Amino acid sequence: MSRIVDMHVHYYTDEYLAAIESASSVTTYRRPADGRFVALWNNGVALTVPQPHPGISQRLEMMDELSIDTQVLSVPSPSSYFLEPRAATELSRRVNEEFAGIVADHPGRFEALAMLPFHDVDAAIDVATVALDELGHRGVMLLTSIDRTPLDDPEFERFWQFADERRMLVYLHPTIPDAGDSLSDHALGIAVGFFADTNLALARLAYSGVFERYPRIRWVISHLGGTLPFMLPRLDNYWRQFPAASERSPRPPSEYIRELVFDTATTHRPAIRCACDTLGADRLVFGSDFPHVHGGSGPFLTAADEVGATGEERDRLLGGRADDLLAGKRV
Q1: Per-residue pLDDT, 15
Q2: CATH class of 5-13+55-326
């Protein structure tokens, strides 16, 4: 039987949720119908957390029912970026320490990605060093933009150099893009904006040469890369047409993007098949975005298991490729 590793799983400590609820930069409320905790940040819905938030015992019960061996815990949008850098650094350290405790208490069942105060690069490097070298985290989770600053901004260059030297696993999760007030209605920030920010982040990292300059970073991208599989021909087309798009990127964007890894966090089978056809089944890992979607991880596992992969490739998609990434290998 295949090992199953869920790479896209979120866990919210009590302190983290309390920090969001008390932050002046965030507006929160409890949805009357189901008590879900909703956080509004940067003119959009940045986070929704089911209530009650599933604890470790509930997770283990579900994992055993579905034969999921390991969950990889992380904190998505808004990460710690909603706080000033000093407070964000302290919160990140404490969340990472709590994650390390969970991993230590349940060997093999949980792994963790570190939360970083990425809006302070020096602090982010310090927190990442402690998380990787002392706490045993397997990588870091960053958002696709940093409080509206794109990832290819020169201020982050030192971190990419550090990550490249460490051959770091960097997991990108979407957040609210800088779109003014256009995403504030209808929960469009999380429904549409998240995928738009993923598309923008990967295009900018390719065009700006970050992928070219730092080839040893081991990238994993959430949600099949947003809608990027549909867009690769356009990115390559404009790379050829506009000199500014290719001056720091000697290869077309699609070549860099097809070297990344993408999680399967959707239940929409045609989307998974499109990603397999466009990016390659050998670039996918299983993810379920637990606990955000009603129904738990089961429907995501069924969808990923029905894309047609068999034998060794099925084993690689469901767990083998994730195990290699968590062990520090390139896939």
Answers
A1: 97
A2: alpha beta
